[in-house]
Write a structure and sequence with these properties.
Two copies of one chain form a homodimer. With 233 residues, chain A is of the alpha+beta class. Helix content of chain A is 41%, strand content 22%. In chain A, the strands form three sheets. In chain A, strands 1-8-3-6 form a four-stranded antiparallel beta sheet. In chain A, strands 2-7-4-5 form a four-stranded antiparallel beta sheet. In chain A, a hairpin with a 5-residue loop joins β10 and β11. The structure holds a DNA duplex (30 and 30 nucleotides).
Chain lengths: 233, 233
Amino acid sequence: MSSCEQCLVRNRAICSSLNAEELEVLNRIGRRQKISRGQSLMWEGDESLLVANVIEGALKLSTSTADGREQIVGVVYSSDFIGRPFGQTSPHTVTALTDAKVCSFTRSAFDGFARAHPELEHKLLKRTLDELDRARDWMLLLGRKSASERVATFLLDMSRRLAQSSCAGAGDLDRFELPLDRQQIGDVLGLTIETISRQITQLRTAGIISTPDRRTVIILDRTAMAEIAGASV
Amino acid sequence: MSSCEQCLVRNRAICSSLNAEELEVLNRIGRRQKISRGQSLMWEGDESLLVANVIEGALKLSTSTADGREQIVGVVYSSDFIGRPFGQTSPHTVTALTDAKVCSFTRSAFDGFARAHPELEHKLLKRTLDELDRARDWMLLLGRKSASERVATFLLDMSRRLAQSSCAGAGDLDRFELPLDRQQIGDVLGLTIETISRQITQLRTAGIISTPDRRTVIILDRTAMAEIAGASV
DNA sequence: CGAAAGGTTGAGTGCTGTCAACGTCCGTGG
DNA sequence: CCACGGACGTTGACAGCACTCAACCTTTCG
């Protein structure tokens, strides 16, 4: 019995704009879906057939060049919105980085519902404006920052966003588990896997971070990190 | 007597969602403004005090690192929307690339008006979603493409967008005037001025473009151009 | 005519990519 | 329990593309 009322992201997703009655309607057009790590939900260039709210887990949004170079253009977490409403085609591929749960809607049904509920469109607009700000920040990183600046910026951003997403103030902001492997970090930062590895090694050697295992990062010196992220050596 | 009814972008800007009555109200809270080339309308990090529709001209949106490296994160033309509604601070600096005219609103007045007019918010949402798609496309370019691919992609994109903006089917799609100087092209593509110059020289030498003067570009071989933009040599 | 701004070209360096070897972790099966 | 294999990550050597620095050319404008 999956119902919106007991939904984990009920108060953080765009649905928080709806009252019980409206939620009931939305519930009927929506569908809970489990996605296992590595599985894709939609593909770049395909017809935009569905949109969804992320309930749990992390997913990446990516595009590729004709010859296969990939760029991750976004990483979404629980309560984030995915898909392209009001458009014909999906602008990017969406793939689960961890096992995930989403609440999906056919695009046509969602578009119709959204148009009839301005409060929901408003939430979606605010969210989209935030995403745009984030994307443009990332453009500065991709266009103008060095490898060391990129990695430091990435780790700080990750620490912040993971803390936000596990809103139950899980405690240690400085210790977190990356939902991405080295290749994927490279795809986010526009760098190669080897460069990522070297930069992480360098941060570890400098005593700025510690890496108990491949996926875990502990930030030991946040100030130094911020300094590197800002203007680099 | 500047009135919305005779506005050049009346049918293309987000205002096209409004009827005569609503337009009258909007007209009262809006203000026509001329901006001369090089002048800025708002600054990155400042409080978000105004938003605007571009009536005429081209403007750049840019961000910088602490040590002054700049990245242009967007270029807007007539009928485009600028500013950050529903947010506290301007995420980037907006500067006129050419002499321009805009129709500006205080953010608070616009926010209020927008919330009361779902059709307008809907237009704004669609526009923002398009901008987000464009920004993410650009992330692929910045993260993964070579200098020659970037310049070719940029010129094709420019030709397309300038044709769109001067909607009066001004004729020659393959001949256009760049609103950007070499430095600014570099700031869009995440490259230096010298690299831009060399790449343009190379395209000219290869007979793919011609450059009658510093600002004018004529695309002679669109196919070759698209090939370079796609996967490069 | 001269100066300044913008653009082009050249020489050399350096950062990041490429290619390759090796190490580590982990699950599987003998 | 240990041997094996594969996925993932690290490290090294080297190369190449784009950056830096510098000189020079072109256009514009006072």
